[in-house]
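User: Could you go from structure to sequence for me? I need the amino acid at each position, not a summary. Structure tokens:
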């Protein structure tokens, strides 16, 4: 990573920034000179994280944001736009892995809304300020789990056959589709996705014991590591000057990789964009 603090004077919004990969990514980007905006469900925890970053010599503010609520996403986007004229980097990091199927106040399966629809809506609403940013980038924190995912148009939100990992994998596949479609639609805003590594973070907190312990053990066995290890490639994708102009790509940690064949289907990506627009109340 460059020693010149490549993000000095630039603003970065990181969702899910009060713990895990999101928190460590925010700290790394602040050290690179960025002004951090922390998208957080819990404002009190968000303020504590902002204070920690400032104590470390960075700059950060907390922005209340619950991706499982369209009203919260819209309020956060409005609040950001009113306070700041531009956004340089958006890191869509927040996510959940829910063991049981529940429905949000908006009528959507919670994993689908939190991991996919909420991030899609936030991204769409922030596009005007991103277009005014300096060499703007969007980083979608996806997962190699997308390779087991499927887009079933008749069962998108798993009303039938719900499983926590299945729901998670499907949303990670959907993220990559939207990353690619966004790169096609917005050539002036770099849009890339990555698998940060098999990291045992708090995203698995809703998986009951002993299954959670087994998940964590499996992650370590396939090369998992600390949240610092997971945050490093996210921070790099958000900041590395060598990646200027790179868009529509998928990375497995630091190396560009080819996503699954299903994730490379352009017709599915275009249709999913339209479906997400309808589900979130946006135009195409």
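Assistant: Here is the amino acid at each position, in order:
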């Amino acid at each position: 990573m460059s020693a010149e603090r490549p993000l000095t004077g630039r603003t970065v919004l990181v969702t899910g920034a009060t713990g895990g990969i999101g928190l460590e990514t925010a700290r790394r980007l602040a050290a690179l000179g960025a002004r951090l905006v922390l998208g957080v469900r819990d404002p009190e925890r968000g303020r504590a994280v902002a204070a920690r970053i400032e104590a470390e010599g960075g700059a950060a503010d907390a922005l209340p944001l619950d991706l499982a609520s369209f009203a919260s996403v819209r309020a956060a986007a409005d609040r950001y736009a009113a306070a700041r004229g531009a956004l340089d980097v958006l890191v869509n990091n927040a996510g959940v892995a829910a063991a049981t199927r529940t429905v949000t106040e908006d009528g959507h399966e919670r994993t689908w809304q939190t991991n996919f629809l909420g991030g899609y809506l936030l991204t769409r609403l922030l596009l005007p300020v991103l277009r005014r940013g300096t060499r703007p980038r969007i980083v979608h924190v996806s997962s190699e789990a997308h390779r087991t995912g499927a887009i079933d148009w008749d069962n998108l939100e798993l009303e039938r056959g719900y499983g926590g990992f299945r729901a998670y994998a499907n949303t990670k596949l959907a993220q990559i589709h939207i990353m690619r479609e966004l790169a096609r639609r917005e050539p002036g805003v770099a849009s890339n996705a990555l698998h940060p590594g098999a990291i045992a973070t708090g995203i698995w907190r809703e998986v009951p014991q002993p299954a959670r312990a087994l998940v964590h053990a499996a992650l370590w066995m396939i090369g998992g590591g600390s949240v610092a290890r997971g945050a490093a490639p996210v921070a790099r994708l958000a900041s590395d000057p060598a990646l200027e102009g790179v868009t529509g790509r998928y990375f497995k940690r630091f190396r560009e990789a080819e996503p699954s064949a299903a994730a490379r289907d352009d017709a599915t990506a275009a249709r999913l964009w339209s479906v997400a627009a309808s589900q979130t109340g946006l135009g195409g």
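One structural detail worth keeping in mind: The first helix runs from residue 20 to 31.
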